Amino acid sequence: KSLNTVPHKLLMLKLSRYGITGNTGAWIRNFLHKRQQTFVVNGCASHAVDL
Q: How does pLDDT run across 18-42, given as a tens digit for each residue?
């Protein structure tokens, strides 16, 4: 939930200043931009919802 309150561009800028770039930076950027949530109850899954 806290990731929803931080501007993603600002977070990525701060991470790059700490040296988190390249594949790791791309992985984090993709995680932030392509997040989905699915619920599974008793083996039955809901539709994926974009966050």
A: 999 999 999 888 888 877 788 899 9
Phi and psi, residue 14, nearest 5°: -65, -40
User: What 8-state DSSP symbol labels residue 40?
Assistant: E
Residue 4 near residue 33, CB atoms below 8 Å: no
Q: CA torsion 17→11→28→38, rounded to 10°?
A: 170
**Which one has a higher pLDDT value, 51 or 11?**
11
Print the domain residue range for 41. Answer: 2-50
Alpha-carbon distances, residue 22 vs 1, 12, 26 (angstroms): 25, 12, 6
User: Domain count of the chain?
Assistant: 1
